[in-house]
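[job 4471] stage=fold_predict status=RUNNING
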Amino acid sequence: MNAGAVGKEIDTPTDVPGTVRDDALTSLFGGIFGLPLMVTSGENIGIVRVTGVRSRYVTAAAGVVLIVVGFLAPVTRVISVVPSAVAGGTTMAVFAVITVLGVQMPGRSDLDRHTNTSICAVALALGLLPILVPGVYAGFPSNVRILLESGVAVGAFVAAVLNIPFPTMPGRVSLPG
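[job 4471] inference complete, writing structure tokens
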């Protein structure tokens, strides 16, 4: 998914662990400053698709600008005047693009094959379960509910686990890299 947004081929054994490691370090570094867990790739992909800007230098420069702005109180006061509807509209556009990218993924999984269709259907159904049946996991301990009530986490986990019993079947769903 990331590679397609910028028109680049990726080396899965090298790039995927590096991406996971970088996201983990970002979250760790953010935690030092009391920030929430950072998962950045989806938002960045959405912004790349909306703007068409694919330069990592532009992304790095934007990051530097955001860090500098964060330390300048007068600038943060000006930014805080931006109406919430404007900020919300921008956020909706970015996350709508992320949603479209998510919808495109199963289309690249050869859903004509029964195995792929079944894996996608079960992962999607279990991922939607907490939304469609609120409170379905109410009887579970709170630390387990944190994971089970995340449709994204459950869907991704189920898809990964279901791919294990079918490794030699042609056309299996491959996890995005």
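[job 4471] summary: The mean pLDDT is 79.
[job 4471] exit 0
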